[in-house]
Amino acid sequence: MTDIEFAWTALGGDPALVPRVSAVERPGALEARLPVRQLARACVGACALAAAELGARRAGLAEVPGVRVDDGAVATAFRSEQSLHVDGRQPVVFAPLSRFWRTADGWVRTHANYPHHRARLLGALGLPRGASVADVAGRLAERPALEAEEAVYGAGGLAVALRTPAQWAGHPQAAEVAARPLVEHARPGSAHARVLPPLDPAAAPLLPAAGLRVLDLTRVLAGPVATRTLALLGADVLRVDAPQSPELPDLHADTGFGKRSATLDLAAGRDTFEELLASADVVVTGYRPGALDRFGLSPEALAERRPGLVVAQVSAWGAYGPWGGRRGFDSLVQVATGIAVTEGSDGEPGALPAQALDHGTGHLLAAAVLRAVTERSYDGRGRSVRLALARTARWLTDGIRSAPDTGAAYEGPDAWLTETDSRLGRLRHARPPVSFTGGPAGWTRPPVPWGSDAPTWTRSS
Question: Which pTM value belongs to this model?
Answer without folding.
Answer: 0.97
